[in-house]
Structures are given as structure tokens and as C-alpha cells.
Amino acid sequence: MHDYNRQHFQRMRWSIYAVLVLAYMSVYFHRMAPGVVSAELMATFQTTGAALGSLAAMYYYIYTAMQIPAGVLSDTLGIRSAVTVGNLIAGIGSIMFGMADSFEAASVGRFMVGLGVSVIFVSLMKSNTVWFSDRIYGLISGVTLLLGNLGSVLAAGPLAYLLGFVSWRSAFIGIGVFSLVLAVLSFFIVRNRPQDVGFPSLREMAGLAPHRERERHWLHDLWSVLQNRRVWPGFFVNFGMAGGLFAFAGLWGVPLLRDGFGLTRNEAANYTTVTLLAMAIGTLITGWLSDYIGYRKPVLLASATLYVVAWLLFLYTPWSSGWSAYLLFGLVGVTGSGFVLTYPCAKEVCAPALSGMAISLVNTGLFLGAALMQPLYGWVLDRHWDGTLHNGVRVFSWVDYRQASLWMLGFAVIALLATVTITETRGDSLAD
Fold this sequence. Notes:
Layout lengths: L5 H31 L1 H8 L3 H27 L3 H21 L3 H15 L2 H12 L5 H18 L2 H6 L5 H22 L12 H4 L12 H10 L4 H30 L3 H29 L3 H20 L6 H13 L6 H7 L6 H30 L4 E2 L2 E2 L3 H22 L13
Antiparallel strand pairs: 1-2
């Protein structure tokens, strides 16, 4: 056993976690905010539904492309450097988006935001693998997703309320400045691993031999992760479950309720807030339950099955604004929360030194799903549009949204089928 100051270690661990979680909350805010300001964006830039979907998805395109590089960066360059530069780029991009005078300029700003924040989550989850033990990794993953989702909650109802006092441009400039502050905090507080500040590794604290460090070029390590068939099911679970859910809650949920049921933006945002809160709480419960019973797959399989049922109810049962809609939007969120278990499943089927790359691979599925779903949903709406305009903004009917939401059900089925092939790890690293 190694001697070390336990209180100092706890302070260091939680300080690093706090900075990274604040950055992660900003990731969710950036991700979900366009849904609340969709009408303003369509009016400002005179866009179609598909074009609005493409503008919002610009974030997802680069985020998706950057997930594997983000894993490589966290495993090689280090967490501290990745998140510092990432927050800096995201802050500049958000300010550019808020000041954009054309659709093209807004797209560039949105692209930069996606580029900057693309490294945050993988770096955070990588940090959790070296600062928290395996036996609570499911729980800490759930806590992380819960706190991150608070950022998306802030981008729903609270943002809609704030827009009654400030312009959408001021809101995005403000979050950009916040990201720049996080870049400074990341540089001064975040450290890559306990050994970098004089502590033993977690395994050494437990009296075990430390894991081997990376011994090969990162390209060889990346190839070994890509060849690992046990990692890929998590990719498709995230593609169908989290990808579809994020696209819906982050862009199309508010317009659906506004156009289909005559709600105001603030009223509609309350329903997507329920979805996001339910998902946030669900990730915490799912992570805790998986650690408690010592199994990953049954919990994930149950979540994916119920998520399919939720979308069947959404599409084929009568419901309206009010309690039935709140229940339905909450059900979609809580049943879709099981995707949080794809991250421990990924890290537990690969060597610990490659956990960043493994997590980034399954996370790529989430953002690929969202990047495809956002414009696809808008394309279906445009195909069924009857020509109705309100203040220069296209208005779609509930029937139009129902047709587009059939894709949500299809994505949910993909996730369910992928869940069946998940490898059960029982919370232990299979590489040990």
C-alpha cells in the first residue's frame, strides 16, 4: 500500500470532476439550444425545415467525425490539453454563432462549437476511469450523465424564459464567454491522472499492480479497438436510442408541440424539459442499478425494449397536451436513459489504457444517429408541408410530425436489436 494524503486526493479528484462536468453541461446546452430558438433561426436566416435541421446538425457532423480523434487525444495528448483547447474553440464558435449575419456564418460558428465540445465527454469519461474505481464506474457514469443533462434542461424551459428578456444572439454570446472561462479553469485545475500530481494509481491504492501503460503507436491501439467486435454493439445502441432521442429533444420536440397542439414556445419547452429531466434521472438510476446487481446487459435490454414501447405509444395512442403528453414525453426520456451503460460496457471489453478510444467509438454512434435524424426528420416534414406560413416560418401539422416520428421508432428498433448482442461484463474489465 502507498502512503498519500487521502483528503488532498479527494479534493483534487472532485475539483477536476467539477470543472469537467461544468464543461460537459455546456456541451448539452450547445446541443439542445437550437430547438428552443428554432423559430428565430428560421425567421432570421429564412430557412426551410431541412435547412434548419442541417444548421443544427452541423454540430453533430463535426462532433461525430471527431469522436475517434477525441479518444486518441485523451489517450495520448492527455485530458487537460484536450479540454482546454476544446473549451477555447467552442467559446469562440458560440460567439461567432451569436453574431452571425448570414446562414453561412452561423453554420461556421455552429461547426466550431461542435469541433470544440467534441473532446469534452470522452475526456471526462476517460478521466473517470483513472480517478474513480471500477466498482462504482456505472454509478459515476450515471451521475455524469445526470449532471450533463442539467445543461440540456437549462437549454429548454429556462432558456425559453430567458429569451423573453434577451435576444437569442445574446444568449449564445453569453454561453460562449462561459466556455472561455472554462478553458482557463481546465488549464489550471485539470490533471490527466493521479500519478501526475504525486499520487499512486487507483489500483496501487487498492494494493494491486498497476495496469500496463500503452506500449505501441496509437494507430496500432486504435486498430485493435476497431477490430474488437465486443465494442461495436454499443455503437449501434447509441445510434438508435440516444441519437434519435437527442435529435428529437434537441430540435423537433418543441416545434411539434407548437405546431401540432398550438402551444407557445415556453409551454412546449416545458415538455421537452420533462423528457430531458427524466432521461437525466434515468441515467443515474440505470448506472446505480447496474452496479448494484452486478450486471449490465439485462438492464440495458429492458431499457431498449421499453424505449420501443414508448415510441409505439407516442405514434399509435391518442394523446394531447396536458398530463398525457407529460407522461409520454417523460416515458420517452426515462426509457431512453439506458444508453449510459454502453460506456462501461465499452471500457470493460478493452485494455484500460485504451478506454478513451473505446468510449469514443460507441459515442460516435450517438452523434452519427443525431446527425442523420435531425435533417431527415426535417426532410420528411418538408415533403408533407401544405404551404402554410406564419410570420415567414413554415408551419407543419401533427400528421406531418407523426410521419417524421416513424423514423424515431425505426431507430429505436435498431437499438433494441443491437442490445441483444452486448457482451455481459458484470462490471469487471475483461482485459485484466
